[in-house]
Amino acid sequence: MFRLAAFDLDGTLKAVRDPYVYLHERLGTLAAAEAFTGKGISGEISYEEWLRLDTGLWRGVRRSVLVEHLRRIPYVPGAVEVVEALRARGVTLAIISSGLLLHAQIVAEELGFHVAIGNEIGFDADGPDPVANGQSWVHCAYGAKRPVLEAVQARLGIAPAETLAVGDTRSDIGLFERAAVGIAVNPKDPQVAAAATLVLPDPDLRPLLDWLERHWPKR
User: Fold this and answer.
1) Domains of the chain, CATH where assigned
2) Does residue 148 surpass a pLDDT of 80?
């Protein structure tokens, strides 16, 4: 039925919706980040500049510390099982996130995703545990997931009619637009729910297991 499943990460596979705030809270940089958050949200500064300022506050933090904090974010109920069910059906699995590439790579390794896209933090390469160096690269800006998914589909030779998309915020509407079925997980915005084919009212992916079995029974 599907050849590609594109998942948002934060709030969809993992319980925390904003990994930037989550890390700022744990690293003691939240107050400093709030000084330019409003400018980023309003568009007064570009997304690239916002990311640079935001992640620049973690300059000098060891990669292992960031990884440890990100690993502590729990998966939503059913995330592991749904991914396993899709992989058992031969589906290519992609994470398309406006969060951190580092987090997406952790989840991809743990759950067996084939594609992981997110925004990148630079690290100094010296030593076994490099430190963040203040550099950053935008690979998926907020609200720009549609062209990212289009590029993934083109690279894999997979059509929108063969794509399932799962997300939770307005940023994920672009994923739904490029998929045959869009699934909104615990959406707080009515526009997200309206754009989806199926709405899960709670942060819980377990209902998708029954949905998959009804619509696409494993043979």
Assistant:
1) 4-19+71-215 (3.40.50.1000)
2) yes
